[in-house]
Write a structure and sequence with these properties.
Length: 755
């Protein structure tokens, strides 16, 4: 929430608006006085890393009454406030819309009571409203992610990892109860056979439970939107027994608050424990939403309906507020009426995809009749968090399809040397939460080993190939496709899954591993800044990874409140460095006496991190001192974030399903033969969808010398970084103007425009 507050304040001030804090929610709006204070640029410094909300929040019964809204309207009119940005749940946003709807009536009553003049009413003739959803529950329809959800997921996954680790080592653990954050309660019941039942007490909507189940590879999840079938107790027991027979040492069951059966009878954690006992991924999001909220207010007219800023894929979009509220309420009605399929569909495509992926990996058993298809998996390039989640998902999805899955160790070298072996369901158990690459990985390309690779593909009877990795995986895939003309054995379907901290693979807006690296950088920057809490006038110069791709430096700059982020894609010169130094010198004259500068590792051959440190140290003499940090390989390691776990899980499963269909297309005359461009693809996220794009079609959009795509979506976010750092005369790309979209279907069509 604080990131959204900071962005709203600073962008509002940048556009020339006078911005106010309303403390203690609607109660502060009703009470007025010192609860409504002007906000300054400095007043939102050093708040990005703080949880909760620094301006406070409170439930307000007074605002539900007309007399309370009348007082709130009077306070706003007296201060000349005509734009209101509300961060909260559907109740808060519904209240804001009601306030706006009856605004004219409230003004008329205030004039009649003599509390405001006709001139004051004229100056405040209409009220613009924009909402941002702040809720860990992620239960607001129309957005993929609400502010606070990712932080809650991190806390939950930390506890789940700790519980499961303990259970692996001590299978006779009895019972533990863990409390996470303020609103999330976890209750773990561990039987003598190490079955962990984790009850996530959130709300009747169960995004957190479902995504936690995917992120930790749970065996079962109970959510109210999709109750289990009748006789679920028997099905659960069979499921856990089957897992044990496959060699699983641990079973994990996740429960959402409000879990129920098909007859709407509550299912409790104790009930599940008794049944099973005898058997056994937000700061950057807040900043982007805050910016979009201000722009929505400034562009609003009296005819513009109240909107809510939502996230769809990697895009901030605007949706009609009351449409989203209505659909959110429809979910509850659908569950109450037993229309569970409708409830899941109303929750949106993101929720549906999570549910379908979970169902496939947790509830479908491998068939007894095998397909005689062999799918091989290889990791290529530098290791990153989330690789193992993708491998686990691909292996289990393949086994469910009846295929034999083969593990290739140590990259393309292992494929050339015959380091290939079958991999089973049990072998990938627990891989979701492990960082690095359990299969082993190398940067070497097929190159000179192409002939040996083709021989081993024939020897091990490999029918299709999944390549998981970074730019080397993309290049290696291209080399294999090119070599098809000479080696017929390479005429098999292939898919490349982007996995690299650099986020530089063409064909995908995001790569597995980048989110974990970004979290590590942001957390480190926060700690570095906090280390100077007792030291005034200090500037930190920090180098991030990424090669020539400036994604990490840019997004970490947004998340940590950097004063500048130097990257290769945006050339900079000595004049730019001079402006940055002057900017910091001026900043030190304010109450904010700290600076943060990020530099991508290959941003410039001559303006190195050491050069920047020397320059800032020399020019800042007498005003500030400098410290330099090169973060290094710590950005590659660590436990995967919930986003990377789930992203890898969905990518792995989707790749196997695509290969299964492609193999059917390519089966000719008793053998597999695939030589068309669309038989070797990159699976990537583009804007709002996971799509497959032929490797050869991506060559035109690739800067091979610098190992980056020629088109990078996140470059349009860089002006926001400069605005939030208080630079003047920043040019913003307005070629893509956000239009109001709609989510309620009418007469079978979805109305609305595009971004």
């Amino acid at each position: 929430m604080n990131a959204a507050v900071r962005a709203t304040v600073r962008v509002g001030i940048y556009t020339g608006a006078k911005v106010y804090f309303v403390h203690e929610g609607y109660q502060g709006l009703v009470d007025g006085g010192d609860n409504i204070k002007p906000a300054t640029w400095e007043s939102v410094s050093m708040m990005l890393q703080l949880g909760g909300t620094v301006i406070g929040s409170a439930r307000c019964m007074d605002f539900k009454e007309k007399w309370g809204r009348l007082k709130a309207a009077c306070n706003l009119v007296k201060l000349g406030i005509t734009n209101l940005c509300v961060i909260g749940g559907d109740g808060s946003l519904t209240g804001a819309n009601q306030f706006r709807t009856e605004w004219s009536e409230l003004l008329a009553d205030l004039i009649k009571q003599g509390k405001i003049t006709a001139e004051e009413a004229k100056r405040s003739s209409h009220l613009n409203i924009v909402g941002m959803v702040g809720s860990i529950d992620n239960d607001f329809c129309g957005t993929d992610m609400t502010i606070g959800t990712d932080s809650a997921l991190h806390r939950i996954i930390e506890v789940v990892d700790a519980i499961t680790t303990t259970s692996f080592v001590m299978p006779d653990c009895v019972c533990m109860r863990v409390r996470v954050c303020v609103c999330v309660h976890l209750c773990a019941h561990v039987s003598v056979r190490a079955c962990v039942c984790i009850n996530i007490a959130v709300c009747p909507h169960s995004y957190l439970a479902l995504v936690t189940a995917l992120a930790c590879g749970a065996d079962w999840v109970f959510i109210p939107e999709m109750p289990p079938e009748d006789n679920w107790e028997e099905h659960l027991c069979k499921r856990l027994i089957a897992q044990r027979e496959r060699g699983s040492r641990l079973n994990v069951i996740i429960m959402a608050e409000g879990a129920q059966d098909r007859k709407q009878k509550p299912i409790t954690c104790d009930q599940v424990k008794n049944v099973s006992g005898g058997i056994t991924q937000s700061i950057e999001l807040g900043s982007r939403m805050g910016v979009e909220a201000v722009m929505a207010l400034l562009e609003a007219t009296p005819e513009t309906p109240a909107c809510v800023v939502s996230l769809s894929g990697n895009m901030a979009i605007r949706l009609p507020l009351m449409e989203c509220v209505q659909v959110t309420k429809d979910v509850t009605v659908a569950m109450a009426e037993g229309r569970f399929e409708d409830a899941v569909n109303l929750r949106g495509k993101s929720f549906q995809n999570n549910w379908n992926t979970y169902k496939m990996l947790a509830h479908v058993n491998p068939p007894e009749v095998k397909s005689n298809i062999n799918i091989a998996i290889v990791n290529v390039g530098a290791p990153c968090a989330g690789m193992n989640a993708a491998v686990r998902s691909a292996v289990r999805a393949g086994l469910i399809q009846g295929h034999q899955m083969l593990a290739i160790h140590d990259g393309f070298d292992g494929l050339a040397n015959g380091q290939i072996e079958p991999i089973t369901w049990a072998q990938v158990g627990g891989w979701t939460g492990k960082g690095g690459s359990n299969l082993g990985t190398k940067r070497n390309l097929p190159g000179k080993n192409i002939e040996q690779i083709s021989l081993n593909i024939a020897k091990f009877n490999i029918h299709s190939l999944i390549i998981i990795g970074g730019f080397e995986a993309y290049l290696g895939g291209l080399e294999l496709v090119t070599a098809r003309e000479k080696y017929e054995e390479l005429c098999i379907p292939m898919v490349v899954i982007p996995a690299t901290v650099s986020n530089n693979v063409p064909g995908s807006d995001f790569s597995i591993g980048a989110d974990t690296a970004l979290n590590t950088i942001t957390m480190t920057c926060d700690r570095i800044k906090q280390s100077a809490a007792g030291t005034k006038r200090r500037v930190f110069i920090i180098e991030t990874m990424g090669g020539y791709c400036g994604y990490l430096a840019t997004m970490a700059g947004l998340s940590s409140g950097a004063d500048a982020a130097y990257i290769y894609e945006e050339p900079f010169h000595i004049h730019d460095l001079e402006l940055n130094v002057v900017h910091l010198i001026e900043k030190m004259k304010t109450s904010v006496k700290r600076g943060l500068i990020l530099r991508n590792s290959n941003a410039n051959d001559n303006y190195t991190t050491q050069f920047l440190y020397n320059l800032y140290s020399e020019e800042g003499k007498g005003t500030f001192d400098c410290r330099m940090n090169i973060l290094g390989h710590m950005q590659q390691g660590g436990t995967p974030t919930p986003f990377d776990r789930n992203f890898g899980t969905k990518m792995g499963a989707k790749s196997v399903l695509w290969l299964t269909d492609k193999l059917k297309e390519c089966y000719r005359h008793g053998r597999i033969f695939a030589n068309t461009p669309d038989s070797a693809c990159v699976l990537g996220m583009k804007r709002r969808s996971l799509i497959f794009q032929p490797l050869t079609s991506l060559k035109e959009d690739t800067d091979f010398e610098h190992r980056i795509p020629k088109t990078e979506w996140w470059l349009k976010l860089r002006p926001i970084l400069k605005i939030l750092a208080r630079y003047e005369a920043v040019e913003i790309d307005t070629s893509e103007v956000a239009a109001m979209e709609h989510i309620i279907k009418k007469t079978g069509e979805i109305k609305g425009g595009k971004i």
